[in-house]
Write a structure and sequence with these properties.
Layout (H helix, E strand, L loop, with lengths): L1 E6 L3 H9 L5 E3 L4 H6 L11 E5 L5 E6 L2 H8 L6 E5 L7 E9 L3 E5 L4 E5 L12 E8 L10 E3 L3 E2 L4 E5 L4 E3 L4 H13 L8 E5 L8 H24 L9 E4 L3 E7 L1 H12 L8 H5 L3 H13 L8 H8 L6 E7 L5 E13 L4 E7 L18 E7 L4 E7 L5 E9 L3 E2 L3 E13 L5 E4 L1 H10 L4 H18 L1
Parallel strand pairs: 1-2, 1-3, 13-14, 17-24
Antiparallel strand pairs: 3-4, 4-16, 5-16, 6-7, 6-9, 6-15, 7-8, 9-10, 11-12, 12-14, 17-18, 18-19, 19-20, 20-21, 21-22, 22-24, 23-24, 24-25
Helix pairs in contact: 1-6
Length: 471
């Protein structure tokens, strides 16, 4: 049975999924709120995977030896959940090539991904073209703009015990000095011996673990350290290869939850605790929303439907504000279509209108008309809708065409609009012709495993309805 630790705004729902709906997982190192909500005992042992909410609250990262299996089991939460396995997992050691140097660090080519190496972690000058040995210390979700954070020190990561190469000390993360000293003394009593040139770091969970659990965690870390050492010893010199994965002691996977998936997680959580409709949707909007949701659920019985008006008034775009249209792709990338002004906002209806000033250059996708300075794009979005239209006009106000994007249900957050593009779209030309485009890209995404057949069928159905309505 695999052990899993869960952290963040999806913890209650995912804990229920892992422990009550599947029998192959044991959740460990549970937080005090989780211990109160579940009528069961939670262990304090080392984890095989840790599930952590991403900083932007749009999904979770899964890290550890069993990360890929855990992520695969959680990927069926909803049809707009997307899953990716990271080519640069936490703890992986690479021989990489410096692509460029920036003010505070270097961009390193790892092969399938790039990473960022801060100069403060390097003991020598690093220049473009240099070959360096680096380790992934802090992975980055594929939809985020940040690159994985790299370091030159080699570490083995754990939830109870971690190891660092080249460090001869014992470090303990504990609430007070007495606890830290006690953990350091306990290390000397454990049967497992720490290899030379490796230092131990006891994580916070170690203060609640038993002696046997501490020793088992340390033994696992030592095994992983030995595997990494062997791989480093057998690897060729960094100068002999452009890029090379040297060792990967654990896996990293990512799950992006769409709007439908968040509501599915609400239903799962409701089996355990009072849960308002849109619990995870609201919490994903803003960090302050988590406290507000918890307060409401502590005081009141939940409503029967998602409070769109209240949620968007408090944690949605405001008229006159600037918002970005964050365009997710099924392969994990996410980029902004640009920022625009919210010219109209109706929280009760869950709608906003965004006006963007366009720059000249190239053509508008599928419409085949030139993009010119002075053009304006007016985009109308509704919370929860599987599509949205953008009307392009020239500086005189004449229409240059309409582009309807088919996507996962739209979510309206305070400073951005988010969804995942589902490739197939519908365009309407100035002369009134309507055309459905990019079905082949959707078919290819299904074939590549980036889009499930169920989600693709929904996209095709939405596209057909939009096409019919525009004719």
């Amino acid at each position: 049975m695999s052990t899993v630790r869960v952290r963040g705004i999806y913890t209650t729902a995912l804990t229920h999924l892992l422990t009550d709906e599947r029998d192959e997982y044991d959740v460990v190192q549970a937080s005090p709120p989780i211990r109160r909500r579940f009528d069961r005992e939670f262990g304090t042992a080392e984890y095989d995977a840790t599930v952590e909410t991403t900083d932007d609250r749009q999904g979770v990262g899964v890290f550890g030896p069993d990360a890929a299996a855990v992520a695969a089991d959680l990927a069926d939460v909803g049809r707009d959940t997307f899953r990716w396995t990271d080519a640069a997992p936490r703890g992986a050691v690479f021989h990489g090539v410096v692509d460029e140097t920036l003010g505070s660090g270097a961009v390193v080519d790892l092969g399938d991904r790039e990473g960022f190496l801060p100069f403060r972690t390097v003991d020598r000058r690093v220049d473009e073209g240099d070959r360096v040995r680096v380790q992934v210390h802090d992975p980055a979700a594929p939809w985020e703009s940040d690159r994985p954070l790299l370091g030159t020190d080699v570490e083995v990561f754990g939830g109870v015990a971690s190891l660092s190469q080249g460090v001869g000390s014992v470090v303990a993360s504990a609430p007070d000095d007495a606890s830290r000293r006690e953990l350091a003394r306990t290390t000397e009593m454990l049967p497992t011996e720490v290899p030379d040139d490796w230092g131990v770091r006891w994580e916070y969970a170690a203060s609640e673990a038993s002696i046997d659990e501490m020793d088992a965690a340390l033994a696992r870390a030592v095994d992983a350290a030995t595997t990494v050492e062997d791989a480093l010893a057998d690897a060729p010199d960094p100068g002999e290869h452009a890029t090379q994965l040297v060792a990967a002691p654990e896996e990293t996977a990512w799950l992006w939850f769409g709007r439908e998936s968040r509501f599915e997680l609400d239903a799962v959580r409701r089996a355990v605790a009072t849960t308002m409709p849109g619990h995870h949707r609201v919490k994903a909007a803003d960090e302050a929303a988590s406290t507000a949701v918890d307060f409401v659920e502590d005081l009141c019985a939940p409503a029967e439907s998602f409070p769109t008006g209240a949620a968007l008034r408090q944690f949605g775009p405001a008229e006159g504000a600037s918002v970005a249209i964050d365009h997710g792709k099924p392969d994990g990338r996410c980029f902004s279509l640009g920022r625009g002004e919210v010219t109209d906002c109706d929280p009760e209806e869950g709608t906003v209108t965004v006006r963007r000033q366009m720059r000249g250059g190239g053509d508008y996708d599928a419409l085949g008309v030139p993009r010119e300075d002075g053009d304006v794009a007016v985009t109308k979005l509704r919370e929860g809708r599987w599509w949205y239209p953008t009307v392009y006009r020239d500086e005189d106000g004449d229409a240059k065409g309409t582009y309807v994007n088919v996507c996962t249900p739209v979510e309206l957050f305070p400073s951005s609009v988010r969804y995942v593009d589902l490739h197939v779209d519908v365009v309407k030309f100035p002369d009134g012709r309507v055309e459905r485009v990019d079905d082949d890209e959707l078919d290819a995404a299904v074939e590549d495993g980036d889009v499930s057949e169920a989600l693709a069928e929904k996209a095709r159905s939405v596209a057909a309805s939009v096409e019919s309505a525009l004719r």
